[in-house]
């Protein structure tokens, strides 16, 4: 999906503004690659940040949770939408500088602000849960039993429109002060990446069931 998101005062960084990105391609790739997001909201006036899973469908971000969890209960009481902040971060490397001050990370992150609504339409909820399953690996939703009525009642989904959103990206090596360049300390980047091991079948799995093609091998989208 081409285009860019409009920057707002809340999505404009106060530092390193040159690292901000608002194009949909960058934002969507980061959201789609990350397996975990952090959902922030106010609970009785106190800030709470919870890790959860997410999935993107176009310009809507779906967030998974228990129907009895704090944010889901709060959203049920807020028909106009629960004010939230959702963040995602991917760490691509450790940046070692000659000075402790200039050590850093190579990273890609996204911040989404807005009012999240509780998904109550059954068809949208089923579609969102399928997207959440496929977010782990594409094709898994069709290769597993869909939720039954009891499981649907136990599970809740929040929908957050991607409107007030920004990404921030830090790449490249260390940025040392000129006077530190001759210091006898190693400087550079240690790249980091998530790697998957060999799939381990469940102990009670029928040995005649083959490993699905979508797990040969397992990789996150980039």
UniProtKB/TrEMBL annotation:
This is Flavin-nucleotide-binding protein. Gene3D superfamilies: Electron Transport, Fmn-binding Protein, Chain A. The lineage of its organism: Bacteria, Bacillati, Actinomycetota, Actinomycetes, Mycobacteriales. It holds the Pfam family Pyridox_ox_2. It comes from the Bacteria. Transmembrane segments: none annotated.
């Amino acid at each position: 999906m081409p285009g860019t998101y409009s920057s707002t005062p809340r999505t404009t960084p106060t530092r390193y503004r040159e690292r901000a990105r608002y194009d949909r391609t960058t934002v969507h790739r980061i959201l789609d690659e990350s397996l975990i997001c952090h959902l922030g909201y106010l609970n009785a006036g106190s800030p709470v940040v919870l890790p959860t899973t997410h999935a993107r469908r176009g310009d809507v971000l779906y967030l998974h949770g228990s129907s009895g969890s704090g944010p889901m209960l709060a959203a049920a009481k807020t028909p106009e939408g629960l004010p939230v902040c959702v963040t995602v971060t991917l760490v691509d490397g450790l940046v070692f500088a000659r000075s402790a001050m200039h050590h850093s990370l190579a990273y890609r992150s996204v911040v989404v602000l807005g009012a999240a609504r509780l998904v109550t339409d059954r068809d949208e909820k089923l579609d969102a849960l399928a997207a959440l399953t496929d977010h782990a690996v594409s094709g898994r939703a069709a290769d597993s039993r869909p939720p039954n009525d009891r499981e649907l009642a136990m599970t809740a989904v929040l929908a957050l429109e991607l409107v007030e959103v920004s990404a921030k990206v830090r790449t490249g090596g260390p940025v040392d002060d000129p006077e530190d360049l001759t210091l006898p300390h190693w400087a550079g980047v240690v790249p980091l990446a998530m790697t998957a091991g060999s799939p381990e079948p469940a102990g009670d799995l029928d040995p005649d069931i083959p490993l699905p093609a979508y797990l040969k091998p397992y990789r996150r989208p980039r």
